[in-house]
Amino acid sequence: MKVLQNFINGQISESQSHRFGAIYNPANGEQIRQVVLSSAKETEAAVAAAEQAFPAWSKTSPLKRARVMFRFKALLEQNMDRLAKTISEEHGKVYSDAVGEITRGLEVVEFACGIPHLQKGEHSANVGTGVDSHSLMQPLGVCAGITPFNFPAMVPMWMFPISLATGNTFVLKPSEKDPSLGLIMAELLKEAGLPDGVFNVVNGDKEAVDVLLTDPRVQAVSFVGSTPIAEYIYSTASAHGKRCQALGGAKNHCILMPDADMDMAANAIMGAGFGAAGERCMALSVVVAVGDDTADTLIAKLEEKIAQMRVGPGLTDGPENDMGPVISAQHQEKICGYIDSGEAQGAKIVVDGRGYQVPGHEAGYFVGPTLIDQVSPEMTIYKEEIFGPVLSVVRVSDYETGLALVNHHEYGNGTAIFTRDGETARQFSEDVIAGMVGVNVPIPVPMAFHSFGGWKRSIFGPLNVHGNDGVRFYTRMKTVTSRWPASVRLEKHTSAFVMPTMD
Ligand code: NAD
């Protein structure tokens, strides 16, 4: 069985670790590969390679670094089919959704191609008489990325294209559940002309991560994953003097107003609730329906649509499925446990995805699309992130109660409102306590040239990923104030002992 290794200093590096993780095809439950779980020493070797590569790469002109990104973008496009099939095989999502994820990552690469412009800094002439001021946005050094299973291509590409383009070197620790994409992207970066050691991949678990959080040579850590781990990453990396952005879990609500276009909303809610089997940090998991009629109308439409959904493997020879399996047997069990708890606490299971069987794929990790009505805020299924194809409906009598629900939830990643009323939508956008807001848009994921990030316990750290925040995260500002004497003979040189002010 193929063992996935590390990529250090421009080549595959055979691990000496005796610990391995198993990689499964979630569509049939078969183990397809193994991945090394690297030792601390091996992780340190990757950091050392990145440290060694930093001086030359950081001095390479931004234009040359951007040209590597241009070639990398072209290679991603040429390899799209291979990349998407690998994602689908290891993660389980349907092929076209895997293409969609790569495309969203590729857009960050396109953004990073503009780095000569983005990293220009600022300049002010004559801040004082004959005095100019300019800022340099300089790279930090070795940066690390620790990424989740649900977007094995896109989430790493939220991080490393901007980090590399701004002149940093990088160590990626991908999810051990679907690690192939990290290694393939490392090969493509090398083919694009990236010098050895600038981008490294260390496969592993907590042992590898802890080195990245504590090694003094690592300057910045970018993390995406569940909230308890995000808290650990942020506190440990910060305590070791590193810059850190740690994006965590979510419980995305949408408010469905009685005046919404119900067909448009139902279609949007279906895709956002059940796409990628609900394993998206921006998946919609709670619909807050304003008024019983609104809830009844929506539920009738959703029931009809769910009955028509095609659930099965992500890769097929025939027509594509709408939804694939979840990532693992344990996760399948956990999701079904949540549905059990909802039922036990008095919610109404309208469509039940427990025990879902796909003919020919009986050992696959499938959970059918699940719709639960009469969910209330005290229930576990309301409070906790389920990360599966489970959509809850909470009924409220008015908009204010709905807004208060969204605002009181501990997570604040994405949220949406469905309405035809511009004033309600505008007020919602202003008052809602969440980082990303959709108006009749169910998954409001900002484009690469804006920044992505939630609020509350969905993020730790002041800067979001990609867009201008991404450039700021991977650079530090140096401000130079300069005066050039017109002539040494004409200047009177005296010492000043007061705080300098310009005139
Ligand atoms: P996870 O937290 O289990 O793992 C994420 C990464 O952390 C992996 O690389 C893993 O190896 C590492 N890790 C796990 N346990 C660790 C430990 N004890 N110490 C150090 N490192 C550890 O998350 P996951 O299950 O891979 O991904 C799903 C989660 O990610 C969900 O909660 C989802 O909401 C979240 N997510 C959030 C966003 C966002 O933008 N906010 C995006 C994608 C996913």
From TrEMBL:
Q: Does the keyword ATP-binding apply?
A: no
Lineage at the top is: Bacteria, Pseudomonadati, Pseudomonadota, Gammaproteobacteria, Vibrionales
Instruction: Write down the EC number.
Output: 1.2.1.27
This chain's source organism reads Vibrio aerogenes CECT 7868
In terms of NCBIfam families, this protein maps to: MMSDH
Q: Which Pfam families match?
A: Aldedh
Keyword terms: NAD, Oxidoreductase
User: Which superkingdom, per the lineage?
Assistant: Bacteria
What is the designated name of this protein? Answer: methylmalonate-semialdehyde dehydrogenase (CoA acylating)
Residues in Aldehyde dehydrogenase domain copies: 15-480
